[in-house]
Amino acid sequence: MERRGRDGAAGTPVITYGLIVLCCLAFLFSPGSGLDPGYGEGDALLAAQSAYFERWGVVPNQLTNLSSHTSHALHTLLAPLTALFVHGSWLHLLGNMLFLYVFGAMTEERLGRTRFTLFYLATGYVALVGYAAANAASDQTLVGASGSISGVLGAFLHLFPRARVTSVFPFLLFLPLRFPAWLVLIFWFVLQWLAARGAGSGPGVAYLAHLVGFVVGFLYAWALRRRTDRVKSPTAATEGEHQP
Fold first, then answer.
1. By C-alpha distance, which of 184, 189, 193 is closest to 161?
2. H/E segment holding residue 166
3. How far is CA 128 from CA 27, 47, 48, in A?
4. Among 11, 45, 77, 169, whose Cα sits 20 to 30 Å from the Cα of 183?
């Protein structure tokens, strides 16, 4: 049986798979992967990586001070989109793609391909801008799809709270166990919140971007369901009036 999303698209999550492929290709051909000898080695490779991240990533103090960077205003405004396809290391890439693979397919099916694509890009954009606004003086480059993927997690929590997902927790000896999605995702959110409280504006993980993306994704799914319910209710009442 073929499943179809809200926009009539076939059940295969082509957008989710496409995003994974794009992120992987972008990383493989970047200096971050270390696979292209053309970028050199040692200090030359580090310099190439730094220049690459600064070109395609988000630098908070540039994004929040566009008046001082008028000659590159458009590039700076687009940076939160390009940054979604840039990753800093193999671990960074594989971690993000695993979460997208696990939670993206069902979310895409429920939202539909077009809506999911716009949702993914918009949520990631808002998450990175939110982080930049809270760390306006920072000159540390921000890259990665974490903001968008956090939005997918938030939407998944609202859309499929009773779904069961396989998870691995260190304090359970790394045994793969199945838990309700609501338990896993709320636990993940609390960890991000605790980490964000202790994080500064220097190098490291942008936990605040994760929190912003998660909240935006959850609220979007909540608003979408409320809107759908309002549209369906009058239709059901009208049909009921014509029943014998």
1. 184
2. strand 164-168
3. 19, 24, 23
4. 11
- Tens digit of each residue's pLDDT (9 = 90 or more) over 40-98: 888 899 999 999 999 999 999 888 887 665 667 888 899 999 999 999 999 999 999 99
Other CB atoms within 10 Å distance of the CB of residue 75: 13
Q: Which amino acid is at 75?
A: H
Q: Which DSSP helix (H) or strand (E) runs through 179?
A: strand 176-180
User: Which two structure tokens, joined as six digits, stand for 69?
Assistant: 């960077």
Question: What are the pLDDT digits (tens) for 91-109?
Answer: 999 999 999 998 999 999 9
Q: Is the dihedral of CA 120, 123, 129, 131 positive or negative?
A: negative
User: Which tokens in the block code for residue 81?
Assistant: 């989109």
Beta strands in 11-55, from DSSP E residues, in sequence order: none
